[in-house]
Task: structure prediction
Amino acid sequence: MSERLRTGLIIVGIYALFCLYLLFVSYRVEKLDNDSYTETNTSVKLSK
Result:
């Protein structure tokens, strides 16, 4: 395999892993945000 092709595949692989990482992190942050929102609403309803 030529050096340029191997380097290109490595760069594309790193880019793909980075995109998957960003998707995973955004999903986790959204899930944590929704959980804290639900927890806040539950505590507010209980205190009324």
Notes: The longest helix spans residues 3-47. The two ends are 69 Å apart (CA to CA). The CA atoms of residues 5 and 11 lie 10 Å apart. The mean pLDDT is 82.
